[in-house]
Amino acid sequence: MKKISKDALRRMLMQLVGWHMLPGGVDNMLVDTVYKQVTSGTWGNGNPKRLFKADGYYCVQYQNGMWWHYDLINKLWF
Question: What's the superkingdom here (predicted)?
């Protein structure tokens, strides 16, 4: 992913299937955490393609098929 602003990332995430499941306030936490990940080093997974829940966490799948769990409280991913 090329350098991206947080607003551009939000717009990208809002277009995904699954965005509607995020309660108010959680959407901001998800954007903050995903932005922290994609801007912290070299990002090679591509653009977000799908949002879903797994194992009690919100998850994002990317263009290359890789997906990450996001711990929104601690702003971590795994």
Answer: Bacteria
